[in-house]
Write a structure and sequence with these properties.
Elements lengths: L1 H24 L4 H10 L15 E5 L14 E4 L3 E9 L11 E5 L8 E13 L4 E9 L12 E15 L4 E2 L4 E6 L5 E5 L1 E6 L2 E6 L6 E3 L3 H16 L19 E3 L1 E8 L1
Antiparallel strand pairs: 1-2, 3-6, 4-5, 4-7, 5-6, 7-12, 7-15, 8-9, 9-10, 11-12, 13-14
Length: about 270
């Protein structure tokens, strides 16, 4: 007889513990469980709390509606950390990577810079825009940044000490990139160059120039046009002295030195 009562008590205790655990698995708070214990009767309603703080973006349930475990009742977004979706051009792809620091600015907050980090780099290029998508994670503790805002992203890159020239010095035909180098006597020499990334309005030069050489930074289209005209005239049998490029006089104040500059970042 004593054994039977002992089994009943043991089974009741096990059922009690199992019920408490099940309620906890449903995210029922300890205070609500204690309320049930005090009342000694079942509750018809219970308050279910969200697993995170945030804003309700979508509500898919209404009073009196029957729900099942697989249903998504609410969409809740935590805006204390946000994602910025950015795009970079093909030539910039070798310079970007996961973990890179990023500075983000918004037209809505002029002069204010937000710091973030690249947390994802897409493995594929968008075939329509020919750009690569990046995801940048940004802290937003005061929730001032809201979804769908436009942003400008600047990635920090360390190129070290590189030879560079002003971007406007380059004549880019698509197949070739050419600069005009100032020579003694006021002449110019067309020079094909191999270029690297663009940084702050300057173009890194990989091959074709030496530090200290002077390159034309304005009116180079006029120089190129006159050079081609004189070259064509020479081909038609006119007396040819020097090459067409060498016959072009140097406009005053249009040359700039190729120099070694520290490039700390790129857009």
């Amino acid at each position: 007889m004593n054994s039977a009562f002992g089994d009943i008590a043991s089974n009741s205790e096990s059922l009690y513990r199992a019920t408490r655990e099940r309620l906890k698995y449903w995210d029922i708070s300890d205070s609500q469980i204690k309320q049930i214990e005090r009342q000694g009767t079942p509750l018809k309603t219970l308050t279910l709390s969200s697993a995170l703080d945030g804003y309700v973006m979508a509500r898919n349930v209404f009073p009196g509606q029957q729900v099942s475990p697989e249903m998504n009742l609410f969409d809740i977004a935590d805006h204390s950390n946000i994602w910025i979706q950015a795009e970079v051009y093909e030539y910039e792809i070798p310079s970007v990577g996961q973990g890179q620091e990023a500075s983000v600015t918004f037209p809505s907050f002029p002069g204010e810079i937000f710091k973030g980090k690249v947390t994802f780099v897409s493995p594929t290029i968008d075939p329509q825009t020919r750009t690569l998508k990046l995801r940048i994670e940004l802290a937003n503790p005061d929730h001032k940044i809201v979804p769908d805002m436009y942003a400008n992203v600047e990635l920090k890159l360390d190129y070290g000490n590189k030879l560079s020239i002003p971007q406007e010095a380059v004549l880019d035909s698509g197949a070739n990139q050419t600069v005009f180098v100032a020579k003694e006597g006021g002449y110019f020499e067309p020079r094909k160059v191999t270029l690297g990334p663009r940084v702050d309005g300057r173009q890194i030069v990989l091959d074709g120039l030496k530090a200290g050489e002077q390159v034309v930074t304005s009116a180079n289209f006029l120089i190129d046009s006159e050079s081609q005209l004189k070259s064509a005239a020479g081909d038609m049998g006119e007396p040819a002295g020097q090459s067409g490029a060498d016959q072009v006089l140097k406009p005053a104040g249009t040359a700039s030195s190729a120099d070694h500059s520290e490039h700390a970042h790129s857009h």
